[in-house]
Structure formats: C-alpha cells, structure tokens
C-alpha cells in the first residue's frame, strides 16, 4: 500500500500548515479525525499581525478576501491570499491554505485544502484532503458516505483496506485536475498529476500521472 501513503500522495507537504499531521500518520484518511483539534490548537498561536479571529474558533488571514454572504463556522483557519466567494458555506473543521479559492455555493466540511487549491463553483467537499494546486471543476463533488452507511473501504486494485471510518470523501494528490460534473465516490484516492475527465464517476485508487477517461479506461501520461 505504499502508493497510498501520505508521502506518496502529497509530494510537497510544506504546502500546508498541517504538515505535522501527515508526518505523524501513515495514510491520509487517518488525518481526518485530527483536523478539528489541530485547528483549535494552532489558531491561538497564529500571528495577530497576519490573522484576525472572527467569532468562535475562526481565524482568517487579513490578506484573505471573504464575501459578505459567505457563512463560516468554526473551527476554521483560512490562509493568506485566499478568496471565499459569495454564498460559500464553510461548516467547520476546515483548514484552508494560502491562495485558495472557495467559490460560490461551495460547501466545505472537515477538510484540509493545501495551498493554491481551487474549488471555485458549486462544489461539495466533505471529509476530504485536497493536495497542492489541485482543482475541482464546476459542479464536481465528493460523496463522503456510502448508501448503506457502512464504513468506507479503500479499494486499490484487488486489495481492500478497512478504514474504520463512516465518512471519507476524496483524497486528491498534488496538481490533480477534476473535470466538471464529476462525482468522487467515498474513499476515492487520486494520485498526483492526474486528470479526471468531466462527468466521471470515480471509485477507488487512481494512479498518479494518469488520465481517467472512465472506469476501465485509464491512460498513463507520457
């Protein structure tokens, strides 16, 4: 399962202030349970010259831009230069990096967004981790709960990994591009530098440096 480890999925862990969470765990889904406590511990230590505390347990960089109609619940940290657009809904346990875009009608819940991540139009991102410079096209969403409500199992080839978690959305490596209208099923893991075609339904592990056209039709980048 080496290809599923934090070190393999995220090529540049310096692109998140939560680097220590990835260093103290082996697999990315193990980080999901730690996000809220990390924010509560880290928020009060942030520079008061660079960050402002807004309400309970919400810290926003002074250089970030937040629309008046966005709703932000804690615990949340929003990094420098990030743009939160009108109608965005940040439900809490949200660690949003620097120079990100959280777009109109986008919902964020129990997530880590590395720096320079874009979820700009009508996205739902729940119980997920999005690597450095990953991008979700308009209307692409994560599905974080199985229809039968049982624990999420990660599928990697013929191997199935029990996670012990009921809720896992998607794990996107660095520089992943997700096409418009795509559904990332519970426990989807997409390796770095992979492109997902629009209107795809993704399940399980997709190798890095791939072009995902549809299930069973995945090309390797040259």
TrEMBL record:
Q: Which InterPro entries match?
A: GlmU-like, GMPPB_C, Trimer_LpxA-like_sf
* EC numbers, comma separated: 2.3.1.157
Mannose-1-phosphate guanyltransferase C-terminal domain residues: 72-189
Any matching Pfam family: GMPPB_C
GO MF, one example: glucosamine-1-phosphate N-acetyltransferase activity
Look up the domain of life of the source. Answer: Bacteria
Q: Which UniProt keywords apply?
A: Acyltransferase, Transferase
Stored SUPFAM superfamilies: Trimeric LpxA-like enzymes (SSF51161)
What Gene3D superfamilies does this protein's entry cite?
Hexapeptide repeat proteins (2.160.10.10)
Give yes or no: UniProt keyword Acyltransferase.
yes
Please identify the protein, giving its name as recorded: Glucosamine-1-phosphate N-acetyltransferase
Q: What is the lineage of its organism?
A: Bacteria, Bacillati, Bacillota, Clostridia, Lachnospirales
